[in-house]
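notes to self, project folder thing:

trying the whole complex as one job this time. last attempt i did each chain seperately and stitching them together was a nightmare. two parts in total, labels are on each line so i dont mix them up again. if this works i'll redo the older ones the same way
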Amino acid sequence: MKAMFRKLLQKYAIDPIQLKALFVASLKMDFRKKGFSPKGRSQKATFWYTILSYGMISIFLAAGVFKVTDVASYSFLILTVSMLMMAMAIIIEFHEIIVNPLDADILSHRPISSRTFFIARLANLFFYVTTMGAALTLVPAVIGIWVKGSHWSFFPLFFTISWLANLSAAAYMILLYTFLIKIVNYDRLKDILAYIQIAFTFLMILGYQFVPRMSEHIQSGQIAFAFKSAWNFVIPSAWFTGLMAGMMSGFSLHFLALSVMAIGSTIILLMIAFRNISLQYAGYLQKISEKTERFEKTPKQRIRTVAAKKRWRFGWIKPGEEEIGYELTARYLRRDRTLRTRLFPSFGIPLAMLVFFLYDGSLKDPFSNTAGFNTIFPLIFLVYVAFFFHEIISTCENWSASWIYWSAPVQKPAGIFWGGAKLFLSRYVLIYFLIILAILTIKMSLVHAFWVTLINAVIFLDYFLFLALFNSHYPLSRPFERGQSNMRFLFSMLLLPVFVFGGGLEYLVFRFPEFLLPAILILLAVFFILWKWADHLIDQRLKKLEYGA
Amino acid sequence: MIELRQLTRTFGNLMAVDHVTFTVPSGQVCGYLGPNGAGKTTTIKMLTGLIRPAGGTAVIEGFDILKEPIEVKKRIGYVPESGALYEKLTPMEYLQLIGRLYHIEEAHLKHRIDEFLQLFQLEGKENQRMDAFSKGMKQKIVIVSALLHNPDVMFFDEPLNGLDAGSALLVKELIRKLADQGKTIFYSSHILEVVEKICDRVVILDHGRIVADGSIQDLRRMTAESSLEDIFSQVTHSEDMEEIAEAFSKLITS
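result (full assembly):
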């Protein structure tokens, strides 16, 4: 059997010894702690966080919809989320498994055939697709047995079909990624990936808004998708739903067509990967190697005098450490695309929700008695903006340059952090609230819009300072880690109870406006107390921090 | 033997390597010099298959780098300037991976790794993760990984980076001995004293073009300069270093 397998591999120009060596080494590296520091976060732990977060999402989703859907609609919802999550994970977190710049430096000059290399990386990716896919679909497959019109066979059928769907989602991403490597240089590729990440983030957060619009009807709380529409043929998850529904209740012509598309597309994708991409794999590595050889024009520097800059700041930034943190963070938020794309989408979410509710007509003056929860709901999401800042600002592609913090005579390490934080608040958050104010004035008076914006801004500042209490790193001093986005997603879900506080408070002050000003004053007092406390804590922590920890 | 035939590489409008042609026969240590950005590393990356030439080609041990890259790669060893390693692995795991990629027999591989590590005074460290290693220790592993499969042609790009004095001496001696055994050595470095000491021949590159090629003695005769440092300054037009250093020191102390 083993000999036959070897022969089969060799027939397709795959070296079994090299394949095994590469695959085993990749798995070993993936599951080892990052960095030599004992405090370094284990990659294994990150992986389990990912699995846990996916498991939680799938449980929430399945438990939330299993009573109000039929087999096809339930399968469609779960498969859509699962395929979307899988695609997002691969393009954002795991794309370097497909083509890794480090491989280009270490292995490009070794005698490894293009196909052996590609299959080894594919096997590595297959491991993640299978484990993450199982986390996303195992529980929904069990819960699905109790969906209206379902029976015990739902579990094995759905689990198998969802695995196929996830494999298909992964294959789409491999195709997309390798196609992009082919047509653009590596730096441009990173830009495009960043835009894709933003698109996915919006789709994940706002996607549920589309659900009612895609349903045939939502009557007495029942969601039923239109499974005879033409849109089925353009959404891959609908193809696999067709396969699932056909297996469960018999194949109509429509389901049969969808099933053919599901199986056919997966086979075609895998064939393209095996026949075409695998042979060009060495070329992709060469393309990545060229990134270091690219000569770029120096961007035009904006000429501004130091005096003008200082006038603009009105004494908001103290000279020394704060100024350093401010300037450095400003430049990196402008130039580090990974940093930008991990941080800025968080701004878009509450903004997009506001626009959504404006469009729906559900955005109303919260001071009026007819206002629903919708008005304050998007603004409460601002806590994510604060959370994402604290989670992301310590990471950077050039994190290793942060040794300078340790070697320079820094008197007050927290000053560097506050410089970055003040930059964020003054250059981004302030403008952001002004935009929110402008949007709110469409549906309410300027005075009401001002008060709504002000109390949200103050709540935001309190959240921001509260989260700062947990900060323990300099800005831009840690590497990005694979799985970090997933962990952030999990933590942000755990933050949900914090919304209740902000939402509850806002509800009260809008119902009893006489408490609005005292509430703002109290929140500001809390803000100053938190600031002093955080300043002390961060300074103490940074003084004890070691480089690379 | 390495034979470069009109090897060319461009990046946008920039000609990084401009129709470079020369041959390095077996048993020769060829020093490849040039200022920063001259095209040295780009040449080596093309020869080792990391990037593709825009024009021309090269033949290594009778195999064309474009037509038979795998055959070329079986015969070369490469110590890259980046010193990149899979640092999450231990030296044993990393070198076993490399050895298996070259199909070295398992029993022989283990024995060979142990011997190499012993020569570089890394015995006892074979099962420690390399991300805790110093730069010099990592560089030793990079060198071992280039020599493990006994290649006929070796490319060294700043191989002494981070090595301690003893190890640097060992590597220099090793290169000479390997050349004496008939191996072809392509040695790129900025340390002119080392190049002067170990290389049979020096090729100097500037703005992607060869500006000097010959043995140290030939170059001395051509330029009427006594040291390689002076020869290098003359052919790359960097003679005014003393003036720049003077200006620098004034700036520092001002």
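what i see at first glance: Chain B touches chain A through 37 residues (CB under 8 Å).
need to look closer tmrw
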